[in-house]
Amino acid sequence: MSDTPLVFLLVGEPSGDVLGARLMAALREATGGRVRFAGVGGERMMAEGLESLFPMSDLALFGLAELLPKLPNLLRRLNQTTKSVLSLRPDVVVTIDAPDFCFRIGKRLRKAGSGVPLIHYVAPTVWAWRPKRARKVAAFLDHLLALLPFEPPYFEKEGLPCTFVGHPVVEGGADKGDGARFRAKHGIGPDEPLLTILPGSRRSEVTTLLPDFGATLRLLVDGHPGLRVVVPTVPQVAGLVRDAVKTWPVPVILIEGDQDKYDAFAASTAALAASGTVALELALARLPAVIAYRIHPLTYRLYRRLITVKYVNLVNIMLDRPLVPELLQADCTPEKLASAVGRLLSDPAARQVQIEGVEEVSRWLGQGDVPPSHRAAAVVLDVMKARHRL
């Protein structure tokens, strides 16, 4: 074995690329640079020095709807990745999220007789659906890194060591926005109400929710003089969003980029958001919010039979109570949205209840402690040491 250990990283989607890049930086810091990397990653990981075995985009579409046309190439990539690990004989393999692809690699390595330690970063959501997955992954993984504090027991009872390392959202900067800068830049007075609206990052979300959000504003505008709206968006749906907000009855500021988004959070009075990870960003920013979502009724009925949790928002799931209003499916109407958002805009006490309630959630996510990437790096190094590889 080389004096400099080799870590093989496998990532299949942009969110995992962020985790992978931060993990690489943390491992390099923890070892004083005495570490090498190989595997598959995206632009962020390549910026940290990874020479990706092939483009991460080849794996990003590993989903049911696009599986068949991509299957031949995906099978080639499965074979190529497995052969690479067996040839390189790394000191540890760390797979990150993208379980459809990553778990297949893990199973293939075990079938081939490889004894390399296998660590997976981002625990499957067995607490929400398909609980039997815990036993299945315990059969081939050596360690699991969990983002949420209540996840480890689900896997530990199956004999799989699992460490809560914290959620990567705490390293994103959602709690470090400059509200005064944002208001000054856009000419918004200190007492003028500002509502952040987040319609999602997928075309299906945007096209479904934006009409309702526009209708919600039409119901709010008379009761909230001077109301301004900011809509953070992402490049893939920016055109759709820009066209939709042209007809809204209040001035709209359209922004892209994380820093402007976090500044908008810090400047805002309240938020109306599609369900997703952004709900955690809002919690970290201490911005009171209403969560909305609607999908096709048939799809919803299917998922409801499979999902075992009472809420969709991780804040509410972690607290086991509806701190943040969730208006889903038939409840996702302009009238109900306007009522819930209007209360946050006009009632400081209602805002304060949310602000105080998310304090505990923020601590659970790892805010204010050792960064999650550093915790994850420590576990990776410990696993290698336990196998006498360092």
Offer a few descriptive terms:
390 residues; 16 helices; six-stranded parallel beta sheet; Rossmann fold
Strand-residue proportion = 5-15%
CATH topology of the largest domain: Rossmann fold
- Percent helix: 40-55%
The average pLDDT score comes to 90
> Could you tell me the radius of gyration in angstroms?
22 Å
The succession of helices and strands, N to C, reads EHEHHEHEHEHEHEHEHEHEHEHHEHHH
Biggest β-sheet: strands ordered side by side in the sheet = 2-1-3-4-5-6
Total domain modules: 2
Short description, anyone?
With about 400 residues, the protein is an alpha/beta fold. It is built from 16 helices and twelve strands.
Report on the structure:
This protein has 2 domains: 6-166 and 368-386, Glycogen Phosphorylase B (Rossmann fold, 3-Layer(aba) Sandwich); 174-364, Rossmann fold (3-Layer(aba) Sandwich). The strands form 2 sheets. A 6-stranded parallel β-sheet has the order 2-1-3-4-5-6, with helices on both faces. α7 (179-185) packs across α10 (258-267). The relative contact order is 0.12. It is α/β, with parallel strands linked by helices and 390 residues long. It has 16 helices and 12 strands.
